[in-house]
Design a protein that fits this description.
Strand content: 5-15%
Radius of gyration: 17 Å
Distance between the termini: 25 Å
Order of helices and strands: EHEHHHHEHHHH
Number of strands: 3
Strand order of the largest sheet: 1-2-3
Helix content: 40-55%
């Protein structure tokens, strides 16, 4: 990462907070930004609190703590929706999960971090993770087949529109910075 002048990763699911005006923490300019990683639930699974179900199933959270975590996640979700509305990234009174994903990716794209990673599985709202570290005996890992081939994903106009929106939201380097 140092070779590419990237000081660290900014993972959106860890940067969301239940604070409507600042529900998505600032992104360091020299970071690799994403909403999640291959070791986490994709955005849809996170948004639907399925990661908390996993933690409870694996006895990492007791039922009372899991219930409290679900309440806190609901506050976080409401804060993120409020934040996205304030930024003009959500219009609907009842946004769909895909609307919220688009808003989050657009917000992240416009921040100017060094690089941005979009998890392809987020495009089709996959809920299951590729890997759950430490669960080799309890859960199969690295066996989930993608719901869409790369060719099918590239042919899907909704996916393409979302990726174009992300690309258009990315800050353009100044001519002097790009050497042009």
């Amino acid at each position: 990462m140092t070779t590419h002048a990237i000081s660290g990763m900014y993972v959106g699911q860890f940067q969301f907070q239940a604070n409507g005006d600042n529900a998505i923490r600032a992104t360091p300019a020299d970071s690799l930004a994403s909403l999640n990683t291959h070791d986490m639930r994709p955005f849809a699974g996170f948004w639907e609190r399925l990661d908390l179900d996993d933690q409870e199933d694996l006895k990492l959270l007791n039922p009372e703590d899991a219930q409290q975590a679900r309440k806190e996640r609901q506050w976080l979700r409401e804060s993120v929706i409020h934040y996205l509305r304030q930024r003009g990234l959500l219009d609907s009174e009842s946004p769909t999960l895909y609307d919220i994903l688009k808003g989050c990716l657009t917000e992240l794209a416009g921040r100017g971090e060094a690089m941005m990673l979009v998890n392809l599985e987020d495009l089709w709202l996959e809920r299951l993770p590729q890997n759950m570290p430490g669960t080799v005996d309890q859960r199969p890992n690295w066996r989930l087949r993608a719901a869409h081939s790369l060719g099918a994903a590239k042919a899907n106009s909704e996916f393409v529109k979302l990726l174009e929106r992300v690309e258009q939201s990315r800050p353009r380097p100044h001519e002097s910075e790009s050497g042009v």
